[in-house]
Amino acid sequence: MHDGAKTRDELLQELLLARAQIAVLHAGHEAQVARAREPTLATLLANSPDSITLLDLEGRLVYANRALSARPVEELIGTRAGDHLPSQDRAAFQAAFEQVLASAQPLTLDLRTVSGYVWETRLVPVKDSGEVFAVMAIGADISARKRAESALRESEEKLRVALSATGLGLWRLELSRKELAWDAATSRMLGLGEQPLCRSLAAYEQVLHPDDRGRVLDALTRYVERGVYEDLEQRVYTPDGELRTLLSKGSPLRNSDGELIGFSGGIFDITERKRLEEQLRQSQKMEALGQLTAGIAHNFNNMLTVILSNVLVAESRVPEELRPRLRDAEHAARRAADMVRELMVFARRYPTSSKQPLDVREVVSRTVDICRTTFDRNIEVVAALPEAIGLVLADAGQLEQVLLNICLNARDALEGQTTPRPVIDLCVKHTAQAACSPRGELMIRISDNGPGMSADVKSRIFEPFFTTKDVGRGTGLGLATAYGSIVDHGGTIECESKEGAGASFVVRLPCIEPARVPADRGTGRSLARGGAGMDPKSAQPTILLIEDEVLVRRTTSTVLSTGGYDVIEAADGEEGLLLYDRQPSRIDLVLLDWSMPRLSGQRVLEELVRRSPGVKVVLFSGCYPAGDLQPNVRAIIPKPSAVDSVLGTIRAALDA
Ligand code: ADP
């Protein structure tokens, strides 16, 4: 025998052991199979995933196939089923139990256990010879389903809140049926009520703006070809005739074979965004135009100052027969000056110092009176004014001019028309809450039922010198100045108009608190010669005139000398400061041009005040600093100015 070899006896023993093990396994298997073939009722009940209990007529547990709570089954027998439920469910269970007994019909209800599980419970009457002697309660654990349902409800609620917060509408396009279905939010956007709707694509086409139809249909054809939906802007008319701009976003819908069957997505109302974009575009254009205009007007002012002042000086010295010629020249120069002033208002370079808290109704009423008394009787002027109204900070004169300009245009539009009942309608509204104004805003709407205007004309009406009226009838400055004034008041002015459908001008002004009344800062208007009533230190007050335009400087210097002043001339800010430093005590007043190259009027003023805090300054310019003026600035002389106004203002400033 070699090492490791087993003896015959050892092998026999191993064989017997293996056989015994197989026999044991085999016997166990047979017992299992036998048990599976003959299940007892108790085995079935014990293995049932449902909870099965039997209750007597008092609702006490007679049998339970499993523990209902942490307590073992034996402890449950004899207890009341209701006691195992959370207190808030007991009454519902009791009512259902009694109903089953009374009706002898099964009934299903959801019951929660104290540990938070939810059981869908079927109460089944157990009868003997037609008489109910017990109730069987079969409960299925639906906790997971309930949790899923509640999670779904929660996410649906979140989606609903998100949809309503963003104002998003939902839509779905079925290509095979050419049908478009949308939700209530989309119906609301289209002005079609509060219900979800389903319409044919052809019906939707009808609500599209005619100019957008072709583009929208082409885009849809393209999306179908490519199987991709791209953002699509579309203008639609509501049944009330209101035009709204909508933006739809979407993605393709495919069947299980991957074929394109439609598109679905969301839709937004972007009308307001579009309006604001247009307003921004318009105001940027106006700002650029304003700067250009201000530059031109500034040069014109200087030229007109020279012309007007020289004409006035010459008028008193030429022979009588030439005076009418000079008066004509003066008249023309003054008219030109008026136009330049209007341009300055448009460019917002003209001071509006007399803004005061104002009840707009007074201005509107005055405008209505003027229109009613001066317009053709054929034109009806109607006004709707609210009872209560917020105050605005405004220059009454300027605001009246704005409203009159708009009404005059409405009158011009209505005149010569065959409109059966021409009307100009002025309406004032106070909005307590406005996006741009925390204290609300006032809206003045002036509408007419005249011929309206084309989109082209509408886009240009606020430009200076844009007019469609005959030569001599329109200057194209009315709405440009209205625009400048309203923007200067912190408001907006917009026009809504369509060819053949009248025009509406909407002016919006921010409301103020009555407490915010600005102090009135008037300027002197008295007229006197320089020497009269002056400080005895000098018979002739001295004026330092700082003006870069040589002709303006020369003319103004002549006017001042003629008026009895000593004049020191400086050609720019630097020279002005140099001359001031040489003899500050001699200079009674500085007449300072505000718009100068290099050292600006603003800088010169700051330097002068730094040197002599009490220095008296009068500004001389066609354009003015925004906001409150420095206290040293005693007055502003607008360019061009007549001799009397220059002398009068200087006199008043010296006396003050
Ligand atoms: P003007 O009245 O001198 O032409 P405006 O600046 O006041 O200058 O008006 C510019 C243009 O705006 C007018 O020429 C006209 O074409 C147009 N417009 C203004 N208001 C109306 C209106 N109510 N109806 C039709 N067109 C108008």
Report what the structure shows.
With 656 residues, this protein is an alpha+beta fold. 42% of the residues lie in helices and 22% in strands. Helix 10 crosses helix 14 (478-488) and helix 12 (396-414) packs antiparallel against helix 14 (478-488). The chain starts with 7 loop residues before the first helix and ends with a helix. The relative contact order is 0.06. The model is unreliable at 514-538 (pLDDT under 50). The structure holds adenosine-5'-diphosphate.
Keywords:
18 helices, 5-stranded antiparallel β-sheet, binds adenosine-5'-diphosphate, alpha+beta
Write the layout of secondary structure elements.
Blueprint: H1 8-37, H2 41-47, E1 51-55, E2 61-64, H3 73-76, H4 87-103, E3 107-112, E4 118-128, E5 131-141, H5 143-166, E6 169-174, E7 179-182, H6 184-189, E8 197-200, H7 201-207, H8 210-226, E9 232-237, E10 243-254, E11 260-269, H9 271-315, H10 323-346, E12 356-358, H11 360-374, E13 380-384, E14 392-394, H12 396-414, E15 423-431, E16 441-448, H13 455-458, H14 478-488, E17 492-497, E18 503-510, E19 542-546, H15 550-562, E20 566-570, H16 573-582, E21 589-593, H17 601-611, E22 617-621, E23 633-638, H18 643-655
Parallel strand pairs: 13-15, 19-20, 19-21, 21-22, 22-23
Antiparallel strand pairs: 1-2, 1-5, 3-4, 4-5, 6-7, 6-11, 7-8, 9-10, 10-11, 12-14, 15-16, 16-18, 17-18
Helix pairs in contact: 9-10, 9-15, 10-14, 11-12, 12-14, 16-17
